[in-house]
Specification:
The structure holds 2 protein chains of 2 kinds.
Chain A lengths: L1 H12 L2 H40 L3 E3 L16 E2 L2 H8 L3 E12 L5 E8 L21 E6 H7 L6 E7 L5 E12 L10 E5 H8 L4 E2 L1 E4 L13 E3 L1 H4 L1 H39 L1 H9 L4 H36 L2 E2 L14 E2 L5 H23 L7 H5 L5
Parallel strand pairs in A: 4-8, 5-7
Antiparallel strand pairs in A: 1-10, 1-11, 2-9, 3-4, 3-6, 3-10, 6-7, 12-13
Chain B lengths: L1 H24 L5 H12 L3 E11 L4 E11 L3 E8 L7 E5 L2 E6 L4 E5 L15 H5 L4 H4 E11 L2 E10 L8 E7 L5 E7 L5 E13 L2 E11 L8 E10 L16
Antiparallel strand pairs in B: 1-2, 1-13, 2-3, 3-4, 4-5, 5-6, 7-8, 8-9, 9-10, 10-11, 11-12, 12-13
Classes of the chains: A alpha+beta, B alpha+beta.
Chain lengths: ~400, ~250
């Protein structure tokens, strides 16, 4: 305890030098936590958006369906297996049928995915109910705000839609935009139009068929029912998780640079302290203090930088991190337009493990860089140290 | 004056009668006969064609020059010669498969699925349109609906309705010139009856004793203000020997 008090007194006594080191270390500490929390927040935001608007509690894919391979889409449709059909009848499953087609807004050709969805579904938060209120002759269409912006379509606009039926024969009809939804998930917005499922099944001559089925969050997924592939939420968000991990790995280079800057400052301070306090070291050893305790004193002095840095970080970083975790940072642009699944406010997520891990990492590095120069004390002779000489 | 009018009224049936009689006596060919006659004009064992495709965009037009080697209806190899951006691009069709080679990427890509519905070099033609090779007689029921004047020339009007499943176009309507036995205009319809595409021959030529379109215009009727795509034949030679290697995938990289 005496060692700790002595170390603390010496440290505070060093004045500006100490506070500069502490400030740099605290900035490093806050930055590491903030950046990691931001990445975690991006992942959580992406996952939440996907669950709410697209994947619910998981999906069943037609055996031929692979969304990453457009060549499979033509054959990716079939009648639902009994087990899945039961979930659909119970209202916990939402079948979606997809086909490729073209639309001609203002007479300009644009390839799209035409997606059929039951208007009455409650599985995802897409406002599909509006599709059932349409009383006109045209095909009622729901589009996202991004798609509306790209195609310059507005509610009430009509355009020609062209598709091929189950046998490959072209068909075309007029479609009308009945609603434009604001959805931050570009995967249900860009390059696609949503129409009532039954209407699409009639258009394609694919009665009772679907490409995939989304189940509600409260429903348990069945294991590959009827040969259809079960895709859990984790499996469906795996790609984004990997992207985040890659991003975090890149960010860790920046963390290392920050940590290196802080560590170099502390290392330099320690070297300077030991050089300037040779007489003190010699006196302490002459008075009977073991070399190990003298090394311990200097290491503790250095190590205390991390403690002071943590306190300082808590003072200014705490409110900042709390703000980012509750209110979130408003994003300057709509990231959906550039193909990123993000909320309009970026809310960070800070798991407890992040604080503990970062604290341990910073403390460990600071202690190590404090100890390394202090090892020199072990080689000092008390008589020479008192006279101000070092070997 | 009244007398003149009365004379005309009296004389009119006398003048029209022989014409109507002649029209009645004109033998209306069957759809099969018309299709065979068209095929005899348009198809050959082989053909080597140098052509230009003029794609009219909203702001400007582009001319793409190509040379094609065609054998029957199954095999076709096309090399694009100009403009520089497209020069060196090659396309090989074997049956229902299509590959393209791009010199920029030095890669051969198979065009299939939805990509077949994409526009060919920005034109009003899709890859799918290029792929159609079945004999119309085999897949459509044809009816000759009568005779019409098209651009001042007598033409047979024939409607074709799909008799097999899986054809891209459910219905086609063609105007076939009575003398040249060439489809001078064609309209392609969706199942709903909506007109999707049209094409017409703007100029014809006689090559090796057969009539052949010199300038052919294709138009996507769903595109508003589309000026269509012109296909102009500069040179064509029929029944010339083409080495088998011309239709090998390896020829794409040469």
């Amino acid at each position: 305890m005496i060692l700790f008090k002595l170390a603390l007194r010496n440290l505070v006594g060093a004045g500006t030098r100490t506070w500069l080191n502490v400030t740099v270390t605290s900035i490093t500490f806050v930055l590491i936590i903030f950046m990691s929390g931001l990445y975690q927040g991006m992942f959580e935001s992406n996952k939440r958006l996907m669950i709410e608007t697209e994947i619910g509690g998981g999906t069943y894919w037609h055996p031929a369906y692979d969304p990453k391979d457009p060549f499979t889409l033509e054959d990716s449709h079939g009648v639902l297996p009994t087990e899945i059909a039961e979930q659909v009848i119970a209202g916990t499953g939402m079948p979606v049928l997809i086909t490729q087609g073209s639309i001609y807004p203002e007479g300009r050709l644009r390839p799209v995915l035409i997606k059929g969805i039951p208007p009455e579904q409650q599985v995802v938060t897409l406002p599909t109910g509006i599709l059932s209120t349409y009383a006109g002759e045209a095909i009622p269409v729901l589009i996202g705000a991004g798609m509306a912006k790209t195609t310059k379509l507005r509610v009430g606009d009509t355009f020609t839609a062209r598709w091929r039926d189950a046998r490959g024969t072209y068909d075309a009809d007029e479609a009308e935009v009945v609603s434009i939804m604001n959805v931050e998930n570009f995967q249900v917005d860009q390059g696609q139009i949503w129409v009532p499922l039954e209407r699409l099944q009639r258009m394609l001559e694919m009665p009772d068929e679907a490409t995939y089925v989304v189940v509600s969050r409260e429903t348990s997924l069945l294991a590959n029912p009827g040969g259809w592939n079960t895709m859990s939420v984790d499996a469906l968000t795996e790609d984004f998780r990997r992207i985040m991990l890659t991003g975090q790995a890149s960010m860790s280079i920046m963390y290392l640079i920050f940590l290196a800057l802080a560590a170099m400052g502390i290392f330099n301070s320690q070297v300077l302290s030991i050089f300037r306090r040779r007489k003190e070291i010699g006196t302490l050893m002459a008075l009977g203090m073991h070399r190990g305790r003298v090394i311990g004193l200097f290491t503790t002095e250095g190590g205390l930088h991390s403690l002071l840095a943590l306190i300082l970080a808590a003072l200014y970083g705490g409110p900042f991190l709390l703000w980012t975790a509750t209110r979130g940072i408003p994003l300057p642009i709509d990231y959906a337009e550039i193909g990123m699944l993000l909320d309009q406010r970026m809310v960070s997520v800070y798991p407890a493990g992040l604080f503990v891990g970062t604290t341990l990492l910073v403390t460990f590095i600071v202690t190590i860089v404090s100890y390394l120069p202090a090892r020199k004390i072990a080689k000092m002779k008390p008589t020479e140290a008192i006279s101000g000489r070092t070997n | 004056m009244k007398l003149l009018k009365r004379s005309v009224y009296v004389m009119m049936p006398c003048l029209i009668w022989p014409l109507a009689l002649a029209a009645q006596s004109e033998k209306v060919p069957t759809a099969k006969e018309l299709i065979e006659a068209i095929d005899a004009n348009l198809n050959a064992r082989t053909s080597i064609v140098t052509s230009r495709m003029v794609v009219h965009g909203r702001r400007a037009s582009r001319t793409i020059t190509s040379r094609s080697w065609v054998e029957g209806t199954d095999k076709a190899f096309t090399e694009y010669l100009a403009p520089p951006r497209e020069a060196g691009t090659k396309m090989l069709k074997l049956g229902d498969q299509l590959w393209t080679y791009s010199p920029q990427t030095d890669r051969i890509i198979q065009i299939s699925g939805h990509m077949l519905r994409q526009s060919l070099m920005g034109s009003d033609l899709s890859y799918q349109d290029m792929m159609e090779d079945q004999s119309l007689e085999d897949v459509y029921d044809g009816i000759v609906e009568g005779s019409e004047q098209l651009n001042g020339r007598d033409s047979w009007v024939m409607t074709l309705t799909a008799k097999v499943e899986g054809l891209a176009y459910h219905t086609r309507k063609a105007w076939i010139d009575k003398e040249w036995l060439l489809p001078m205009r064609e309209e392609l319809f969706a199942k709903s009856g909506k007109l999707l595409k049209s094409s017409y021959a703007e100029e014809v030529m006689q090559v090796e004793g057969r009539w052949y379109p010199k300038v052919w215009v294709f138009k996507d009727e769903l595109k508003r203000n589309s000026r269509g795509t012109e296909w102009i034949i500069d040179e064509i030679a029929f029944n010339q020997p083409i080495p088998e290697a011309q239709f090998a995938k390896a020829a794409l990289r040469k």
